[in-house]
Write a structure and sequence with these properties.
alpha/beta, Rossmann fold, Alpha-Beta Plaits, 2 domains, 4-stranded antiparallel β-sheet, 13 strands, elongated, ABC transporter ATP-binding protein, AAA+_ATPase, ATP binding, P-loop_NTPase, ATP-binding
């Protein structure tokens, strides 16, 4: 549904995108992550046709995004800074954009319900909360029943309740419609909740891409077992006991002791042995940390990380 090939975009002396190639299958949900300045918004502007690449090619649903009329029929876009005239009601905002896109009026009421604003359509949007405004923006993006939905930092600035409400709407849209979603965000928990694929941009380059599971697994197969003890003597005894219990086993953990804390780094296959040895020392608490998406993203953008 989305195909970007060796895309380059430069602003002055800055390479906003430096040879980015990305493919998003129909019906997939892709989380596009990276720090500020990584190139996420630039890529979105190319996908929606607001700008053209300096080199390379971009296709959305087989269409050149700079073909404005055709791409608007297939793509819904929610920009990070979407804003509406505060004096207009929610219904008037949607009606305005519906007229621009030739969408029938009944669709407006339906979309207000879809985004959780069925009783707010007659209210001026100047009185909407940030979360309500973002959901109204999503309703605008859904006008015309698009094949592709581009959401640029859709929950930026929202409180936890607003984030949760917005994400529930996106989940429902994905369940009910055959739509391809690309979500740009700093919030990795959103990617894990809403997306089946993830792409990491850094300094204008694509560092890694794949399913969330594939990218997470690429961070390594190492699991950390952390145990806390009440005093230094207990910690010293536990460290000696754990090292003796695991000596010569395939576990062969990397054991380190901090201030009242014992930490073991082991392969996932050895977690049971390591955890059993730790529990035998009667710690005050035990925590097991598996590789996660945050670790994977951090490693991908670090010097020497993925694709560097």
């Amino acid at each position: 549904m989305i195909e970007a090939t060796e895309v380059r975009k430069r602003y002055g002396t800055v390479d906003a995108l430096d040879g980015v190639s990305l493919s998003v299958p129909s019906g997939a949900s892709l989380g596009l992550v990276g720090t500020n300045g990584a190139g996420k918004t630039t890529l979105f502007r190319l996908l929606v046709g607001h700008e053209a690449p300096d080199a390379g090619s971009v296709r959305v649903a087989g269409i050149d995004p700079t073909d404005g009329t055709r791409v608007r029929e297939r793509v819904g876009y929610l920009p990070e800074d979407a804003g509406f005239q505060p004096a207009l009601t929610g219904e008037e905002v949607l009606g305005f954009y519906a007229d621009m896109r030739g969408v029938e009026a009944p669709r407006v009421d339906t979309l207000l319900s879809v985004v959780g604003l069925p009783d707010a359509g007659d209210r001026p949007v100047g009185g909407y909360s940030n979360g309500m405004n973002r959901r109204l923006g999503l309703a605008v993006a859904l006008l015309g029943d698009p094949d592709v939905l581009l959401l640029d930092e859709p929950t930026a600035g929202l409180d936890p309740a607003g984030v949760d409400a917005f994400n529930r709407v996106v989940e429902r849209v994905r369940e009910e419609r055959d739509v391809t979603v690309v979500l740009s965000t700093h919030v990795l928990s959103e990617v894990e909740a809403l997306c089946d694929r993830v792409a990491v941009l850094d300094d204008g380059a694509l560092r890694t891409v794949g399913t969330v599971e594939e990218v997470t697994r690429a961070a390594g197969d190492e699991v950390t077992v952390t145990a806390e003890y009440g005093d230094g003597d207990a910690l010293a005894a536990a460290t000696e006991s754990v090292q003796a219990a695991l000596a010569g086993r395939n576990s062969d953990p990397d054991v380190s002791a901090g201030e009242l804390t014992l930490e073991l780094a082991v392969d996932s296959a050895a977690v049971t042995d390591a955890l059993g040895a730790v529990v035998e020392t009667d710690p005050e608490s035990v925590r097991v940390d598996e590789p996660d998406l945050e670790t994977a993203v951090r490693e991908a953008v670090a010097p020497g990380g993925a694709d560097r």
